[in-house]
Amino acid sequence: MTAPIDAEVEDATARLYLAIGRLARLLRRTGSPGLGPGAVSALATLARCGPMRLGDLATKEGVAPPTLSRIVAALVEAGYVKREPDPQDGRAWLATPTPEGETMVSGVRSARVRELQRRIEHLTPEHVSALLNALDALETLVGEESK
User: Fold this and answer.
1) Closest CA to 78 of 59, 98, 49
2) What is the DSSP string of 65-116?
3) Burial of 142 (0-12, 13-18, 19+ CB in 10 A)
4) What is the pLDDT of residue 109?
5) Distance between CA 147 and CA 127 in Å, rounded?
6) Could you give the 3-state DSSP secondary structure of residue 25?
7) How many CB atoms lie within 10 A of CB 104?
8) For 67-85, what is the mean pLDDT?
9) Which of 37, 41, 38 is nearest to 28 (CA)?
10) What is the spatial distance between Cα 62 and Cα 122, in angstroms, rounded to a whole number?
């Protein structure tokens, strides 16, 4: 049995939720190429992980396959993704980022990282230290391995 969450942790949880949401919205507006956040995320996953089947990409993105199908169709139409036959299953296809898609992700990522870095540079040294010390916990929270 787990211990009940005290009021301080409950308050911090609500504050963290709001802060992360606000930061995510702020960064989505930075360097936005006219693609929605779902399209940018799917394109970034393809750029990072390489060609993927639609179902695998939907699982990785945490969205329903029909939603991801629409997102990928828009990325194909925009020239950021191409469809290629799956060499292991001729009935299936893989979504692969085009060179333009790779460039798009790189530019968006760069703009957003620069904006985040600019904001971090305005923090006090104590806040920067606290933020750096929290990274392992945040990466664990979202299921990423710490670096």
Assistant:
1) 98
2) HHHHHHHHHHHHHHTSEEEEEETTEEEEEEEEE-HHHHHHHHHHHHHHHHHH
3) exposed
4) 79
5) 20
6) helix
7) 25
8) 94
9) 37
10) 34
Measured distance CA(97)–CA(82) in Å, rounded: 6
81-86 vs 52-53, strand pairing mode: unpaired
CATH number of 23-141: 1.10.10.10
Spans of all domains in the chain: 23-141
Three-point CA angle 69, 142, 70, nearest 5°? 10
> How many whole angstroms separate alpha carbon 58 and alpha carbon 29?
23
The whole-model pTM stands at 0.65
Q: What is the pLDDT of residue 3?
A: 62
Distance CA 65, CA 71 (A): 10
Tokens of 94: 């893989």
Instruction: Judge whether 38 and 63 are in contact, CB under 8 Å.
Output: yes
* pLDDT given for residue 4 in this prediction: 65
Q: Which tokens go with 125? A: 């040294």
Q: What's the pLDDT score for residue 70?
A: 95
Name residue, tokens 């990282």. 113
The pair of structure tokens assigned to 116 is 């985040």
